[in-house]
Specification:
The chain is built from 13 helices and ten strands. It is of the alpha/beta class. Strand 1, helix 1 and strand 2 form a beta-alpha-beta unit. About 0% of the residues have low confidence.
Length: about 375
Amino acid sequence: MHQPTVIDLFAGVGGLSLGASRAGFKVAAAVELDPIASGTHSHNFPLVAHAITDISKLSGKELLRHANLSNGELDGLIGGPPCQGFSSIGKRDIEDPRNKLLSHFFRLVKETEPRFFVAENVPGINAERNIELLNRSLALIPKHYIVLKPLILKAHEYGAPTKRKRVFFIGFDPARMEELHEEDFLPNGVTPVTVGTALLGLPQIRAGWSSEQQSWRRISPLSDSRFHQLASGIVPSGVGDPRSLERYFDEQKVSGCLGTVHQPETVARFKRLKPGEKDAVYKSIRLDRNDFCPTLRAGTAADRGSFQAVRPIHPSSPRVITPREAARLQGFPDWFVFHPTKWHSFRQIGNSVSPILAEQILSRIYQKAVMVTAKNA
């Protein structure tokens, strides 16, 4: 049977790609302008065709050719256009040139005509100041597509340990796709996963662990809960960096256990913080092991100052969290690798869609895609 295919635009390190792969799709291509993020994506998805290019300059014909697909063969176009200009916590600059990339996503929907599309962004995109741009972008979608009303979804309601809230635009061609409805994407009663559960099994961290070699540490066995199964296994065929998979499954070692050296006065302040309280200097919140993680931030790229994102404080140790802990809280599996530096890895994690939420969304679409594929086989 034909495996339904998707192309991931603005792919980053692959939160949506992993969700799509676990849902059953083949990721045919991933497009990402940042060469460091694209390099990390290629480590985790070695069989995917990667393009480091500006999507605004990419035609639908070129995109399909890069994915080795012909007209009519693309099942899904997925992606998370840059959201900084739409975010309620940033400058909220409607003139931010990155905002226009949203329209290019829908232009490529028009030019590639997939059976469905999924676009992810921050809820602020629905704010009054952005409505004109949003409407212009949505107007590019061919008229025969059915577009669901924007879905605002909270990752913790779908089994991820983060409160991260995002809006999803989902549409489909009713002539080539079983109908989708807003109700298809409602939470289905998954067991909530708290910070404490999410961080189980990860090692105690030493502040001096600063190199990539030092960051590889052994973890303890996990439970058979659904979240821990997602954290410790369920590797789709062709996905995963072979060496990292080997170290994980043969040695029980994970990467990204990088420490942070804090001044004594900082450590003392962190120790006094109660769960949920914010540090007066760092503006970091101490995580509550019995609650969900707040949205992890990405910081800024080199062209915008290279500012480090504010990192939460560990719930029981007087330090900020490690990249591997952030990955668990975002819903990434332990075998998934990120850039070996803290700055890039936190940017990559903070910019990602939770793969747990992505899988929940795309698995529900996959069921409809398989029905159509089976009928046409």
